[in-house]
Amino acid sequence: MTTTFRRRGIKAAALIASLGLFLSACSSEDGGAGDADLSAPGPEVLDDLDEAVEIEFWHSMDATNGQVLDGLIEDFNSQNEGRVHVTGSFQGDYDEALAGHRAAIQQGDTAELIMIYDLGTQFMIDSGQTVPAQSFIDADDYDTAPIEEALLNYFTVGGELRSFPFNNSTPLMYINRDAFEEAGLDPDSPPTDLAEIREAAEKLTVTDDDGTVVQYGFGAAVYGWFVEQFMARAAAPYCDNSNGRDGRATEVLFDDPKIVELVEWWDQMIEDDLAVQIGRNTDDGQAAFTSGRAAMTLESTGSLGGFIEQSDFEVGAGYFPLIESGDPGGSIIGGASLWINGVGHSPEEIRGSWEFVQYLLTPEAQSTWHAGTGYLAVNTEGYEGAEAQERAEEFPQFSVAASQLADSEINENTAGCMMGVMSEARVAAEGGWETALTSDTSAEDAMAAAADGVARTIEEYNASVE
User: What is the pTM of this model?
Assistant: First the structure.
């Protein structure tokens, strides 16, 4: 089972929104990023070492995930004894790790390698502290062909890969296969769009003799990541300037008619007692599914193991749904990537970090990582490893995630919005969505007001880094 850090609320939004001010304050300091050589050193810097190069790796993997990562670190160290030695250091959840990195920049004492979640990508670029991943790829003529294309697309900005994908996931639709069979539905053909979900929910919803609903057809959390996913699958940009890829984003676009349609559909499903009202808490959404209260839900691939373990029914999985059947499809990923710090670090430390990252991206390491955690195999050849194959036999549902990514449209929409206050935007999208579900405010007005509310935060961040 994968531990994921998906709920990012006011704490995350406040953190990201404040980072622009931090960048503005530190950009004029002497000895800053502008003075550093942020290019990839060659392998020769590790020749004739007197002792192993020490690499500190800050990450957010605890519990089972942390144990799997520790095992990979130990294996790498044994293979590189006397050359490179990596020490993993748990820094708390994604928000805490980013805050710790910010403090480390101010103190001039960053770790050699750090794991940063997807919403921190723009800040990491703006901070000017890291050696772009593309620099290592170009210097070593590193072959990225086996790396999942959708993941490379997400972390590529301005035509250059900025960080290395590692612990990544994508959302799916999960179904109660037992309930499907009892309702006369084919569990091997889950609904693919909103209309089909409603049609299935009408058959899956069960009431008792008093008319009380004991099983809803559908139920999922009001989670901002899902808005990003629905927009990507509809080929609608989340923010302007080609999702912030052709220039800094100046506004969010989640008041798009497609999302208004989604929110209206969601509201009607609740009104018609076909969907249970969950709210923003993803734990509540998961519990509604595993308890049998909702026969269909939306969640991350990281929830699959837990769903299977905690449910008294057979769990099935399908592609994340489209809003309408004619939508082109695509997939937004989540999770984090690896950044190699350059400012304040020696060529040996930078190269040593890259050696470790290369190891983590090997098919063997990815097979171990995927099998032990449930995260995607960044290197698709990792799915062919013995450990991954064993997991596939145990959890055949997970192949749906790999197929969904493989079938994903590769464009700026599926690349995701690049914006310094992405966390603030995600919280705002949730707020507008929830307002439409719990008040008389129309979906159109609620989402428009939410989008307008982010405008000043975007403007302040952009002004602070320009």
Answer: 0.89
Write down the pLDDT at residue 53.
Answer: 98
Q: Is the pLDDT of residue 73 over 90?
A: yes
CA distances from 274 to 17, 38, 184, 277, 437 (A): 38, 55, 17, 10, 14
Identify the DSSP state of 294.
B
Specify the residue for token string 């609608």.
236
261: burial class by Cβ within 10 Å (0-12, 13-18, 19+)? middle
The answer to whether the CB of 171 falls within 8 A of the CB of 188 is no
Q: How many CA atoms lie within 13 A of 53 on its CB side?
A: 25
* Number of residues that make up the chain: 466
Which of 147, 164, 166, 138 lies closest to 42 in space, CA to CA? 138
How far, in Å, are 85, 116, 207, 253 from residue 334 at the CA level? 29, 11, 36, 20
Q: For residue 452, what pLDDT is reported?
A: 97
Question: For the purposes of burial, counting CB atoms within 10 Å of the CB of 207, is it exposed (0-12), middle (13-18) or buried (19 or more)?
Answer: exposed
- How confident is residue 15, by pLDDT bands cut at 50, 70 and 90? low
